[in-house]
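Shape is hard to put into words, and the shape of a protein is harder than most. The fold becomes a row of whole numbers, each drawn from a learned catalogue of backbone shapes. The outcome of that step, for a single protein, is printed below.
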Amino acid sequence: MTDRISLSVEGGVADVRLARPEKINALDEGMFAEIAAVQARLDGMAGVRAVVLSGEGRGFCVGIDLESLGSSPALRDLMPRTHGEANIFQNAAWGWRMLPVPVIAAVHGFAFGAGFQIMLGADIRIATPDAELSVMEMRWGLVPDIGGIALLRGLVRDDVARELTYSARRIAGDEGARLGLVTRLADDPHAEALAIARAIAAQSPRAVRAAKRLFNQSFDASAAQLLEGESREQELLLASAGHAETLTAARQGRAPVFEDEDWS
């Protein structure tokens, strides 16, 4: 699709790949812009039901291309909110969480710094046992600023997030799974992620999108807000066209088919 990102769609599954393998998918200014463009395109594609996000070459993403971005004027003022609640850099991670459909990250090789935070932006993360993961910003005298802290707090205990951030230590994929950063380990994370995405794509797209909205709300919502949100989403689903046929199929022991369902 672009110089630095590839995109293909088949059977409702979008396969997105960071495609700067000669730099192990290090992020320069153009790559941040292209990630935002791909996210915007996916947001407007009605037929997409799940997204797989991976990196070509030796690793998922080694983070910021310091040589390219070190003197960028864009780094002089990070405060403008250019993409909803986020700036252009934060959007590279937060934007995947804000997509209306589930995103599954397939991680191999390295996920460092900004790359690690992009991985955290996915709903589900599949990694090889020997993948190398690190928050890493502290090594450069910086804080994680690609949405990392906002995303970490929903995945691991507070003290674990602090230790990983303060120490900038590298951990392997299998330790990441034990800590809760990695959903599942696989020798071929891309194949595993595609299998999960296809399973999601076989479900009701309206219900999946509703569930993602509820999970996104759960970061800051009170129990009362979540309970009200569940009721609101369920009322809309029960009133949607085709739901009666879904219930009939379930009662008859048939698998419901959602191919023609309105997924807006």
